[in-house]
Write a structure and sequence with these properties.
By secondary structure, the chain is of the alpha/beta class. The longest helix is centred in the middle third of the chain and has 33 residues, at 294-326. The protein has 17 helices and 25 strands. Strands 3-2-4-1-5 form a 5-stranded parallel sheet, sandwiched between helices. It has a 5-stranded mixed sheet with strand order 7-8-11-9-10, with helices on both faces. Strands 14, 15, 16, 17 and 18 form a 5-stranded mixed sheet that branches. It has 4 domains: 4-116, Cobalt-precorrin-4 Transmethylase, domain 1; 119-241, Methyltransferase, Cobalt-precorrin-4 Transmethylase, Domain 2 (2-Layer Sandwich); 369-435, Alpha-Beta Plaits; 439-566, Sulfite Reductase Hemoprotein, domain 1 (2-Layer Sandwich), CATH 3.30.413.10. The radius of gyration is 32 Å and the shape is elongated. The protein starts with a strand and ends in a 16-residue tail after the last strand. Helix 3 (59-71) crosses helix 4 and helix 6 packs parallel to helix 7. It binds S-adenosyl-L-homocysteine. S-adenosyl-L-homocysteine binds at residues 12-13, 80-83, 86-88, 117-118, 121-122, 166-168, 197, 199-202, 222-225. InterPro entries: 4pyrrol_Mease, 4pyrrol_Methylase_sf, 4pyrrole_Mease_sub1, 4pyrrole_Mease_sub2, Cbl_synth_CobJ/CibH_dom, NO2/SO3_Rdtase_4Fe4S_dom, NO2/SO3_Rdtase_4Fe4S_sf, NO2/SO3_Rdtase_FeS/sirohaem_BS. One of its GO terms (biological process) is methylation.
């Protein structure tokens, strides 16, 4: 009789969570080989099988014994808790077989029977913490160098994976979990939810919900799986939940209507998604454009091949959802819609049908949105008061963020359902608020602390008329109050310099890239009463005729003339631009 190796994952430990195939395989086997504790866990399912028990550290001899017995013609079950392919016996058995020159064809038959791994059983007891991209990391440095484990923890922390830690701690290995917490705190808030599950679906099951700061205050041992949330994981009523989507952002004055579920798959609603590749999309990206550098473009297209493939992969996943949806009467059924439908059915079953549906959906999306806006002390004012700083700290709170930009602004990101309360407070403290994104931004100097103040009213008038309005691409207008132009007005898309009671005008600076260049001087001595209107007309033309995502310097080059000011070809640069980060 031909022998066979059955590598069985029997799940977390309770009989209800063993698969049918795993039970059958156990019953079909003549020999069961496993670690003592595991044999005890499944003993109730065995009949007259021979049992080979071994200690925990004898994995290799377990695998060797299994192969030996199978080759001698026996049906041998090698058991692992959870899934045998997850830090289990499956790989080890194959290693022993490979060592012996085993081949699939003609060699002893091997069947791997999947089981519910600890990441899944623990997650089910915690709520729904995995949901999004997740990884498992074993903290056992018995077979893996600690340096490599630490590197993986670091990378997973940085990449915002939900992390399930296996083998987190033993009597002998106690420092690993402490180090892991330290590394993760570099990337995640101390409030990040953490679930600690001991002996899932076993007799002494114990579930604790805590956070990254306090996790070490709880009992963590060899029978424990620790699940660390990502940056969007929340705790609700004792459950740990990672919402599927990332948070949507909205800015000052933008339409903050919550999305209907079917709108979520549209690109406008998910601007972070990688677009299907085409030549135009390059200009859409946040990367620096390759400009005239053909070589760069070639290289970029080579990269794009991979990206396009990745997108296609993604698109297939989406279309799977869509396909499921289309069978449901044309509406696109996202998992969220299906969840709402299930909830409604369950509520109806309990004789309740009120208060669900559209309202619930709207609320869900509001809660997942982040309000972002730029603040500064004023157009000319560069000084924050202490009171303003306190207000900022207060409205941002522990969970929001405040980012200092190179453009005289702080960007605030706040999860809120009441943006108006925040803006009212900031305005009453004298802040100048601005939307972020592709808008017009006025960047003035400090007018030598207000001493050279003749041009300030013009900066303010420009701010009032043009500040924050939408443009095809972000458009920065620099205004400096004297010929020193020390705040770099001439480096901007549009530069204005006040000199001898009149204004000089500069157009089309290329503000970023290795081939950045200042704006071209196009006029000297514009009369003050004409300034604001002239600038308004220039901006309006850009808004009307600029292509989406076209930077102002490119627009100027393309249209050749604005308000009678002619674009002059610059001497050709041989320097190549690099994509962002290169
Ligand atoms: N093959 C197993 C993992 C073996 S490594 C699986 O797929 O689940 C052993 C580690 O798994 C333990 O240290 C613990 O972190 C985790 N683990 C296994 N069973 C568990 C259970 N019932 N409850 C919680 N964690 C468990």
């Amino acid at each position: 009789m031909a022998g066979k190796l059955l590598i069985i994952g029997f799940g977390p430990g309770s009989f209800e969570h063993i698969t049918k195939r795993a039970r059958e395989a156990l019953q079909d086997s003549e020999v069961i080989i496993g670690y003592n504790t595991y044999v005890d866990l499944i003993r109730g399912l065995l009949t007259d099988q021979e049992i080979v028990r071994t200690g925990m550290t004898e994995e290799v001899s377990r695998a060797q014994e299994a192969v030996r017995q199978a080759e001698a013609g026996k049906k041998v079950a090698v058991i692992s808790s959870g899934d045998a392919g997850v830090y289990g016996m499956a790989g080890l058995v194959y290693e022993v077989l490979m060592e012996k020159g085993w081949r699939r064809d003609g060699g002893v038959e091997v069947e791997i029977i999947p089981g519910i791994s600890a990441i899944n059983s623990s997650a089910s007891l915690l709520g729904a913490p995995i949901m999004h991209d997740a990884c498992t990391i074993s903290l056992s440095d018995h077979l893996t160098p600690w340096e490599l484990i630490a590197k993986r923890v670091d990378a997973a922390g940085q990449a915002d994976f939900v992390i399930a830690l296996y083998n987190p701690r033993s009597g002998r290995r106690t420092r690993q979990i402490v180090e892991t917490q330290r590394i993760l705190l570099k990337y995640r808030s101390p409030d990040t939810p953490v679930g600690i599950v001991k002996s899932a679906y076993r007799e002494r099951q114990h579930v604790v919900l805590t956070n990254l700061r306090d996790m070490l205050d709880h009992d963590i041992g060899m029978l424990t799986t620790v699940v660390i949330g990502n940056s969007s994981t929340i705790v609700y009523d004792g459950l740990m939940i990672t919402p599927r989507g990332y948070q949507r952002k909205y800015t000052l004055g933008a339409d903050v209507q919550p999305l209907r579920p079917h709108q979520r798959l549209q690109h406008e609603a998910e601007p972070w998604a990688l677009r299907q590749w085409d030549a135009e999309a390059y200009g859409d990206s946040d990367w620096e454009e390759p400009d005239d550098a053909d070589e760069t473009r070639g290289e970029a297209i080579a990269v794009s091949g991979e990206r396009a493939a990745a997108v296609r992969g993604g698109a297939i996943a989406v279309s799977g959802e869509r396909a499921a949806a289309e069978t449901r009467g044309g509406a696109i059924a996202t998992p969220l819609l299906l969840a709402l439908e299930a909830l409604q059915m369950a509520e109806r079953g309990r004789g309740r049908s009120d208060g669900l549906g559209a309202d619930l959906t709207a609320g869900l999306f509001r809660r997942q949105s982040i309000f972002e806006l730029a603040v500064s002390p004023g157009v000319a004012d560069k000084k924050f008061t202490a009171k303003q700083m306190i207000t900022l700290a207060d409205v941002v709170g522990e969970k929001g963020s405040m980012e200092y930009t190179p453009h005289h602004q702080l960007i605030l990101r706040i999860q809120t359902e009441q943006p108006e309360e925040i803006t009212a407070r900031l305005r009453s403290d004298g802040f100048l608020l601005a939307p972020i994104g592709d808008v017009v931004q006025i960047k003035a100097c400090d007018f030598c602390n207000g001493e050279k103040n003749e041009a300030i009213p013009y900066a303010e008038a420009l701010q009032q008329k043009l500040g924050g309005i939408s443009a095809p691409k972000e458009l920065r207008i620099g205004l400096n109050g004297c010929g020193m132009a020390c705040y770099g007005a001439v480096q901007e898309d549009i530069g204005i310099v006040y000199r001898k009671q009149k204004f000089d005008l500069f157009l089309g600076g290329k503000t970023v890239g290795r081939n950045a260049h200042p704006a071209q001087p196009v006029a000297e001595g514009i009369e003050p009463e004409q300034l604001v209107e002239t600038i308004e007309r220039i901006v309006q033309r850009f808004i009307a005729e600029g292509h989406p995502n076209e930077r102002f310097h490119k627009f100027f080059k393309r249209v050749k003339e604005i308000e009678g000011y002619r674009h002059q070809e610059m001497p050709a640069f041989t320097i190549e631009n690099a994509v962002c980060g290169d």
